[in-house]
Amino acid sequence: MGQLPAVIVDGVLYASWMFVIAVGLTLIYGVMKILNVAHGSLYALGAYTASTAAGYWLSHGHAPMGSYVVLLLAALVVGLIAGPLIERGLLRFMYGRDEIVLVLVTYALFLILEDFTKLLFGVDPILVAEPYGLLGNLQMGRLIYPVYSFVLVAAAILVGVALALVLNRTRQGKILRAVIHDREMSTAVGINVSRVYLVTFTIGAMLAALGGALTAPTTSVQPGIGAEVIVLAFAIVVVGGLGSLGGAAVGALLVGLVRSAAVHYQPEVELFSVYVVMALVLIIRPKGLFAAPEVRKI
Amino acid sequence: MKLRDTPLLLIVALVVLLAIGLILPQWALSFVSVALYLGIVVLGMALMMRTGLVSFGQGLYYCLGAYAAGTLDHFFKLSDLLLMVVAGALVAGVVAVILGFLLSKYRDIFFAMLSLAFSMILYGLLVKSSELGSTDGFGLSVKTFAGIAISASAVRYTIYAFSAVLATLFAIGMHRYFNSHLGRLAGAIRDNELRVEYMGASVRRVIHLNYVISAVLAGVGGALMAGAIGHVDPETTANWTTSGEFVFIAILAGTGSVAAPFLGAGIFEAVRTFALQYFPNTWQMTLGITMLLVIMFLPGGLWSVFGLRRRST
């Protein structure tokens, strides 16, 4: 049991990392009913852009602390460019089609973006680790963690709280909830639904890119990271219930804790444990833990 | 081409394939074998799509089939092709019967996600099981067919010919099934489940049956792949990207005919081979753009091109 604190801390760290990515996925699904496979590619694009930009910044002798700003800006830029481009250029022609067709459309987009990323950034791994170690370490009992890890936790909480506040406390949030509830009726009362879609998708894309940008300093960025992350994000949003903000948080925590417990106690089942949780939750609650009940339409 | 002529055409195609196989160079034999075993897997996918369900985890059964075949040779020294394929079909079938009880309750995105979860569980298990070679997998070889020894030079043709025979049998069987009462329920379920129930048929049982059939086909495809490539590993079988490829081929081909999956698999393999050779860094992009174009302009898949032409004449 001596490992328990480490299991919990690691689990929370892992959960906050995945939450930033999963919450964008669940937001897009909640509003647009699109399960966006290309979310993984946006994550990869964010990671690549951020590490390249931060590498450039540091190699030109600028203040190392500024690299955090560079990371954030990179995510912002990727989201602002890729989001509208994808939504206006492709997805808006697909609205109203089957959910499963939309999954296939975003899967095709995923394939395209995977190669686009390789063309843009090459296939060699990029590692810019300075921002990771810059803030020093934090000692918790016998355990030592880099402070940067806790920046991730703070970022996740910030993102979650900000989204919850916007959704529940502002006029824009009210409009968004109206669109989620009934798209046609919202159009009828004068809500510009296509603008709501555009903004939602762009915010979702930014969150994916932010997830990538924040991860970039902790690992080497290489081809294939998008494919790995997207199934994990699927697992989390499906566990929590597609389209549920709180569900994404609980799903991330559950998956994070299970995974870190597996890593500490039984390393062989690490990856396997995540999907067992996903399958079990789907078996017991077919629509996830926090999905709103749906009226059957014949 | 009239519908009832299809079996005859398939048999003609088989005879042609068997005959030209004798003079084809080795690389061409391998290429057609790939199209055949991928086609068998996608034929099963097409059956599920007719029922209105897209599995994002068909790699599960493909992988089970491949590993069943591999295990026979690797651990039991049974290097018989027929035995491998039977084992692959059996393992996949048994697992599908069990999982089918669960999955037949799920629809749409939830069906896709749960099937994805199951295949990723297998993937997660395999990459960590050192007895089965972890991420590297292990090699195997085919030495006999139904007890008859095959010379090393004839192995490739044997696998090719057996794949062709199986593909023809499955295609004819599927063609008959599509046109039977039970088979026609698939389309009805996709259109409106409730009405099917009111007519007195059990939706869950039909879905369960179709699920097992598609899994057995994937198992056979996986076993043939293992024999043809001589190697099995988790990344190219159980990972979700492989299941994605099956979905891709099924969308590309369309579900209009039992021959479509084989055509689709052939085109897919040709594009992959060509693209990997000449522009290795943009082949996925080529696939993605093709898929988008098909979804937008040919919702019935490439096969619907034939249908359009027929209607206009």
Summarize the structure.
Chain A is mainly alpha-helical and 298 residues long.
Average pLDDT for all residues of chain B = 85
* Total strands of chain B: 4
Uncertain stretches of 5 or more adjacent residues of chain A: none
Question: Beta fraction of the residues of chain A?
Answer: under 5%
Categorize the overall geometry of chain A: globular
CATH architecture of chain B: Orthogonal Bundle
Order of helical and strand elements of chain B: HHHHHEEEHHHHEHHHH
Strand order of the largest sheet of chain A: 1-2
- As a whole number of angstroms, the C-alpha radius of gyration of chain B is 19 Å
> What name does the CATH topology of chain B carry?
ABC transporter involved in vitamin B12 uptake, BtuC
Q: Can you count the helices of chain B? A: 13
Terminal CA distance of chain B reads 12 Å
Distance separating the two termini of chain A? 53 Å
Determine the structural class of chain B based on helices, strands and strand pairing. mainly alpha
Largest interface, by Cβ-Cβ below 8 angstroms: which chains and how many residues each?
Answer: A-B, 46 and 41 residues
Count the beta strands of chain A: 2
Low-confidence stretches of chain B: none
Assembly type of the shown chains? heterodimer
Which percent bin holds the helix content of chain B?
over 70%
Largest sheet of chain B, if any? 2 strands, antiparallel
What does this structure look like?
The complex is a heterodimer of chains A (298) and B (313). Chain A is an all-alpha fold. Chain A has a single domain, classed as ABC transporter involved in vitamin B12 uptake, BtuC (Orthogonal Bundle), CATH 1.10.3470. Chain A has helices spanning 4-32, 39-59, 66-89, 99-121, 130-133, 147-169, 171-181, 183-188, 193-215, 225-240, 245-265, 270-284; strands spanning 137-140, 143-146. In chain A, a hairpin with a 2-residue loop joins strand 1 and strand 2 (143-146). In chain A, helix 2 packs across helix 9 (193-215) and helix 2 (39-59) packs across helix 10. The longest helix of chain A is centred in the N-terminal third of the chain and has 29 residues, at 4-32. Chain A is globular. The radius of gyration of chain B is 19 Å and the shape is globular. Chain B has 313 residues and is mostly helical. Chain B starts with 5 loop residues before the first helix and ends with a helix. Chain B is built from 13 helices and four strands. Chain B has one domain (3-18, 26-312): Orthogonal Bundle (ABC transporter involved in vitamin B12 uptake, BtuC). Chain B has a two-stranded antiparallel ribbon. A two-stranded antiparallel sheet of chain B has the order 2-3. In chain B, strand 2 and strand 3 form a beta hairpin. Chain A binds chain B through residues 35, 90, 93, 98-101, 103-105, 107-116, 118-119, 123, 227, 231, 234-235, 238, 242, 267-276, 278-279, 282-283, 286-287, 298, and chain B through 54, 56, 102, 105-106, 108-110, 112-114, 116-118, 120-121, 123-125, 127-129, 194, 240-241, 244, 247-248, 251, 281-285, 287-289, 291-292, 295-296.
